[in-house]
UniProtKB/TrEMBL annotation:
Chain segments annotated as transmembrane: none
A Pfam family that the UniProt record links to this protein: TetR_N
Keywords linked to the UniProt accession: DNA-binding
Organism annotation: Sinorhizobium saheli
Top-rank taxon, per record: Bacteria
Organism ancestry: Bacteria, Pseudomonadati, Pseudomonadota, Alphaproteobacteria, Hyphomicrobiales
InterPro entries attached to this UniProt entry: Homeodomain-like_sf (IPR009057), HTH_TetR (IPR001647)
Keyword Glycoprotein: no
Sample GO molecular function, one term: DNA binding
Keyword Cytoplasm: no
Residue ranges of DNA binding: 23-42
Record-given protein name: TetR family transcriptional regulator
Residue ranges constituting the HTH tetR-type domain according to the UniProt record: 1-60
Length: 191
């Protein structure tokens, strides 16, 4: 039994119930170990909750950014890989964790701060992709915001409202969000 086992069990309780369901006694019974095992890894329940948020940040943000960055240098390909994330086989489980943490963050400061930090990291990464495509900073931020909205929205809607195939969504999203069709209209020149 290691720290990760406790964190993953607690995340599952968060998804299945809510944060109030995360109790040391309940987790110990679920894992088939004594409370002593918990205290070997964590001093308090609050420390476990912090470890859950750190695990979520690492697994669902930092590791994703790292693997996508390693996979290719073309910013359009990296953005396409981000658009494909909600349609991967394991994505529904990740979406449930994401939704549960965001719901928890609506009421409690610690997860609210973690959600804000994760959103900033993701948004900055997507903005950088648009900058790497040659867009000016302000336009890159606008497009990054829309791209992030598409990714987050697809993670919620995919499976219940499938209007596009797994392959079609990333390609269409890239065409839409990274095209000149979204460019701000030129101001008329005086003359």
């Amino acid at each position: 039994m290691n720290e990760k086992d406790w964190v993953e069990a607690a995340l599952q309780v968060l998804v299945d119930e809510n944060v109030r369901g995360i109790k040391i006694d309940t987790l110990s019974a679920k894992l088939g170990v004594t409370k002593g095992s918990f205290y070997w890894h964590f001093k308090t329940r609050s420390q476990l909750l912090g470890a859950m948020l750190a695990h979520w940040r690492k697994q669902m943000t930092l590791n994703v950014i790292r693997s996508i960055s390693i996979a290719g240098s073309d910013p359009r390909e990296r953005l396409s890989a981000l658009f494909a994330l909600p349609r991967r086989r394991n994505s529904p489980a990740f979406a449930r964790i994401e939704t549960s943490i965001r719901d928890w963050g609506r009421r409690v400061d610690m997860p609210r701060a973690a959600v804000g930090e994760v959103d900033e990291i993701r948004f900055d990464y997507i903005t950088k992709l648009f900058r790497d495509m040659g867009y000016p900073q302000a336009e890159a931020r606008r497009r990054a915001y829309l791209a992030y909205c598409l990714i987050m929205g697809d993670s919620v809607l995919h499976g219940s409202l499938d209007a596009m195939s797994r392959e079609e969504f990333p390609a269409y999203a890239i065409r839409l969000i990274a095209s000149d069709m979204c460019k701000k209209e030129q101001e008329p020149t005086e003359g």
